Amino acid sequence: MTQRSSRLAGKVAIVTGAAQGIGRTYAEELAKAGAAVAVSDVGLPTATAEAIRSAGGKVIEVVADVTDRASLDRLADATVKAFGRLDILVNNAALFGKLTMQNFAEIPVEEWDRVMAVNVRGTWQSIAAVTPAMKAAGGGKIINISSGTVFKGSPYLLHYVTSKAAVIGLTRSVARELAADKICVNAIAPGLVMSEAVQSHPGWGEVAASIVASRAIKRDSTPDDLIGALLFLASDDANFVTGQTIVVDGGSVMH
């Protein structure tokens, strides 16, 4: 297996929402860096697992719904059973690609609640499910996925932007609570990434062009652009970094 490095050798990671797109990239790159990876999604993420396995990586695939705490507990248990420990959680599962841009007053209540259930409650429940295993391992790294839209006040996706702002607040609060257990909790806030879901969405063309124009680095973002920040936060290089949000968007947001 072609590895970026061995910086995560001996580590064990969970990636939620790993069936495709950015989540699949996260999982594959963690494996390339030497981690054993449990990939999960609401459907069995077989393609991701097969890609990692065929490249020589260690992987298991597990069905898990982040809105269902019992399934998350089973995910954590299956990971420890397979690999003996748990060191890293990438909280990637979220609703975004299939959402329609619309006026804030016209968002259906049911859609609002579903976004909050997956993007906010799912993040919280995933952390709660993995924390006992991380404590048993002597520490760990939790990486939540927020969004650069939080810092821009992006219009017409109020439920999504609000949910990702909540992830930042959640990250900071949980970082305070888990620091004594040597568990670092941080967030990555990507800009618009040309993932499979975005590329197949009929409404993102003009939006993507305007976002690229707002960047200091004027090009589309791909999932690979996020890997440097991910591997840093997952590694021992970030042992003294917690409660932080790293914006990875080519300089559209600077704060």
Summarize the structure.
By secondary structure, the chain is of the alpha/beta class. It contains nine helices and seven strands, in the order E-H-E-H-E-H-E-H-E-H-H-E-H-H-H-E. A seven-stranded parallel sheet has the order 3-2-1-4-5-6-7, sandwiched between helices.
* Count of beta strands: 7
Strand line-up across the major sheet = 3-2-1-4-5-6-7
Query: Quick one: biggest sheet?
Result: 7 strands, parallel
Average of pLDDT: 94
Dominant shape: globular
* Number of helical stretches of at least 4 residues: 9
Q: What is the CATH superfamily label?
A: NAD(P)-binding Rossmann-like Domain
CATH T-level fold name: Rossmann fold
| Beta-strand share of residues | 5-15%
Describe this structure in words.
It is a single chain. The protein is an alpha/beta fold. The chain has a single domain, classed as NAD(P)-binding Rossmann-like Domain (Rossmann fold, 3-Layer(aba) Sandwich), CATH 3.40.50.720. It has nine helices and seven strands, in the order E-H-E-H-E-H-E-H-E-H-H-E-H-H-H-E. It has a seven-stranded parallel β-sheet with strand order 3-2-1-4-5-6-7, with helices on both faces. Strand 2, helix 2 (46-54) and strand 3 form a beta-alpha-beta unit. Helix 3 runs parallel beside helix 4 and helix 4 runs parallel beside helix 6. The model has no long low-confidence stretch (mean pLDDT 94).
